[in-house]
Amino acid sequence: MKKIRSKLISSVLLLLTLVICFLSGFKFLSMQKKEDVFPTEGLTSKKMLSSYFQTLKNTWGDTEVYIYEGQEKGGNLLIQGGAHPNEPAGFITAVLLIENIQATKGKIVIIPRANNSGFTHSDPQEGNPQRYSIETSAGRRSFRYGSRLTNPIHQWPDPTLYINPAGQKLSGTESRNLNRCYPGRKNGRLTEKVAYGIMELFKKEKIDLAIDLHESAPEYPVINAIVFHENSEELAALALMELQLQGFEFSLEFSPKNLRGLSHREWGDNTQAMAILLESANASHGRLKGKTSPALILEGKDKNYVKAAKLGRLFVPYDEEGVPLKLRVARHLAAVKSILSSFEELHPEKKTEIKNMPSSNEVRMKGIGPFLHPPN
Amino acid sequence: MVAIFALLAMILKLPIGVSLAFSALAGSLLGGEGIGLRHLIEGSFGYFDTILIIVTAMIFMKVLQASGILDTITSLLLRTFYKKKSALLLTAMFLVMFPGMITGSSTTAVLSTGALVAPVLIKMGLSKVKTAALIAMGGILGMIAPPVNILVMIMGAGVDMPYVGLTIPLLIIVVPLAIVISLWLGYRDIKIIEYEKMKAVLPPSYHKQYGFRLYLPLIVVLVLMLGQSVLPKIMPDIGIPAIFLVGSLIGLGCGRPFNFFKATQKAIKESTPILCILVGVGMFIQIMTLTGARGWIVISFLSLPSIFLYLGIATSMPLFGAVSAFGSASILGVPFILALVEKNAILTSSALSAVAGLGDLMPPTALAGIFAAQVVGEPNYFKVIRHCLMPALFELVMGVGVLILTPLLDKLI
Amino acid sequence: MQIVYNLIVLYLVGHLIWYLFREKKFWNKVCAVLVLIMFLLRLFLIK
Ligand SMILES: [Zn+2]
Predict the structure, then answer these.
(1) Beta bridge partners of A169
(2) Residue C21 to chain A, least CA–CA distance (Å)
(3) Cis check: omega of the bond before A157, within 30 degrees of 0
(4) CA of A87 to the centre of ligand 1 (A)
(5) Which of A218, B187, B206, B338 lies most in the core, judged by the most C-beta atoms within 10 Å?
């Protein structure tokens, strides 16, 4: 009798397990649905990364590449967002460009979700929301807040010790960090293949200038920064002057030669492109963050960070006003624009002309919503 | 949340893991997040890799026991060392540390070679709990020792410091500690015994019966582990769980025959309560982060006046280790390195890793303590941790000392 | 390698369920359930 009861309890518990798995599994899987992106009529072609590197086809590493080509030949620009899907300003800036611009001269290649797999899950123990939404002129659009790393169900297991393609020793989880996997491996892990695919894109699209859009935690020293490869030193300095004139403070950071596998290092070393990485301040992926919510992502208001700023622990100014997403996106837009115009100054023959680029000032004042395509 | 946890665990005597899970659920409800099922489950996944390592290591240990390999090696070590006290202690310490050194995981060390040396030490007169304390400390020191120190790697990733040039600083910290701690714990209690007495406690050796192949599982496991850290380009990196399972399967044909399913079932039975603690802690941390409690703790320690900064490091990093030493390194280690930016980051992170490593003694997770207790068959792991207090203090003093003396050491190295 | 790890998880899921039915103490069963949830979600490549 006792035995039967025990078995009965076990059966009930097993059923409960399945119910919990089903309910939570449903939520986890919901992250696999991509948010829509609405390119402008100026879009010349939309490709997949797998068209540059076949092996990526039908994997979670494959991702959209939006190409805007002007009538006139000019410079070839790459803008990459979403290398770290928990850094929304990078992704949103790329989306804003895709949904607004037209190219009149040169070619603009935009990858909004460089690590597509990273968008499909959230980091354990970070308490992040799965989505945040932005009000457009006609309805809300919601975007996924992903993880810094590739989804472990797409790349598993992690090695104990990760030696990246550039030979750097890192902890095992970094094998899923796209921005440590450059220049990639043809037969490597998924993230390394994505990195390899992006390097192939550099070759085939003959990229002259590449900008990688990121965000970092406010306590991290490289922040509100233009990180430049030594091949773009002059370019970065020129862009900085222009940004300062517009009232944006940035710090210039030299890409360290001994820190390998990062985009600004390996793009610069392995391709003919000038390589730059931009950082803005995102409280929602910091270690000091207070209550975690979509509002923290969008408004960037956080008491802990205000306190930390007063203690002199931060590398960016942080007050009660917070650092909202619209400001972070505006900074990225301003920096992209300044880098482009400085690039033109240095290489007039490689000019890229973009029409309808959202102005950083307007984004800062009016917010992101007015520049987004309404949802279908 | 902490109060609810205390109520469930202490008064209702629920298992620690279940209490943690329920208090996380309560925290989610009180924090206005609803049941937050997604958050709870997601939090537990923070330990998924650790859990796989634990289960497979436990299976490996059960295989070593069941096949008679453990007895054989105990007998071998006893015959070699029954007259040499210090040599035994230092060898035992090194043996325990070794898997930790090459995998960066204290659990791996405690559950593999820790299980090998435990019976030897006990038979030589060291009490169960002190043996466990030595194994636990060995695991922690192994985790900190070069060539692989994951704690430093985690901190390095947070401040863009490449994992280069750490061997010497880490050795400076670990070698004196290993010597002092093993002698401190064992020198007084270990007895040099007569040959006849030794014979009497000698477990059966299966060496004659099965010969060299008896040692094969252990050799394969150590070679595979060593390979992935020393020759990563040549050796396939199959990950620690797979290594343990390969070793276990090889063990099937290398010694006394046994039932592999029963060995696994035993491993599951013994490890489930501990795995459950990890699941519970994972949920707890997720909700703490969600409600802002984690950030509040970090900022509180960071706002200590600078004279108390070292005190803050010495207390908060081991305490936060209740989450896991890795969590402590990431959540607190990185801000502390940044707070000490004017110092050499390599030395700072090495010293902080020694402090953070102690987190593996901090209940309720206390991975090193729990598994060391299990290896020697001591049901109450708090007794083991009590004996770790002095050694832990040595390590703490060493860590903070190096931190303070960084400018001086910087010039010396 | 991923297939190998899936097999490892499958093997462990089997054992956990076996344990769930063999174990007599209720709260130990609950412990097994908490661990089992994770293993099942990974086995089916959901999380
Ligand atoms: Zn980033």
Answers:
(1) A163
(2) 6
(3) yes
(4) 6
(5) A218
The answer for A 234-293 residues in CB contact with C (under 8 A) is none
Nearest Cα to Cα of residue A118 among A179, A169, A207, A54: A179
Looking at residue B231, its pLDDT comes to 76
Tokens of residue A275, six digits: 């390589």
Helix or strand holding residue A66 (H, E): strand A64-69
**CA dist., res. B375 & res. B112, Å (int):** 9
Question: How do the domains of chain B map onto residue ranges?
Answer: 2-412
pLDDT digits (tens, 9 = 90+) for B274-302: 899 889 989 998 999 999 998 998 898 88
- Confirm if A217 and A285 have CB atoms less than 8 A apart: yes
Question: Does A359 fall in a domain?
Answer: yes
Q: Are strands A64-69 and A225-228 parallel, antiparallel or unpaired?
A: unpaired
CATH number at residue A100: 3.40.630.10
CB A173 within 8 A of CB A189: no
The stretch B16-35 carries a mean pLDDT of: 90
Q: What 8-state DSSP symbol labels residue A358? A: P
- Tokens representing B344? 């050499």
Neighbouring residues of the ion ligand 1, judged by CB less than 5 Å = A 84, 87, 214
Query: Nearest-CA residue of chain A relative to C24?
Result: A6
CB-CB neighbors (< 8 A) of B45 in chain C: 38, 41, 47
Q: How far apart are CA A128 and CA A140, in angstroms?
A: 20
Q: Which residues of A touch B45 (CB under 8 A)?
A: 124
List, for residues B241-268, the tens digit of each pLDDT value.
999 999 999 999 899 999 999 999 999 9
> Is the CB of residue B265 less than 8 Å from the CB of residue C31?
no
Best A130, A287, A289, A314 member to test B by mutation, with max B CBs in 10 Å, is A287
Per-residue CA distances from B183 to A217, A246, B92, B277 (Å): 44, 66, 11, 32
Looking at residue B6, what is its pLDDT?
78
| Interchain CB contact of A30 with B (< 8 Å) | no
Backbone φ, ψ for residue B303 (5° rounding): -90, 5
Backbone angles phi, psi at A110, to 5 degrees: -125, 125
Tell me the pLDDT band of B157, cut-offs 50, 70 and 90. confident
Rg over alpha carbons for chain B, rounded to the nearest Å, is 21
> In angstroms, rounded to a whole number, what is the distance separating the alpha carbons of residues B373 and A357?
64
| Cross-chain Cβ contact A13/C30 below 8 Å | yes
> What residue has token string 């923290």?
A296
Burial class (CB in 10 A: 0-12, 13-18, 19+), A119: buried
The pLDDT score that the predictor gives to residue B201 is 82
User: How many domains is chain C built from?
Assistant: 1
Q: Collect all residues with Cβ–Cβ distance below 8 Å to B96 and sequence separation of at least 6.
A: B109, B110, B113, B114, B117, B134, B135, B138, B139, B142
The four Cα atoms A167, A172, A177, A178 give a dihedral, to 10 degrees, of 40
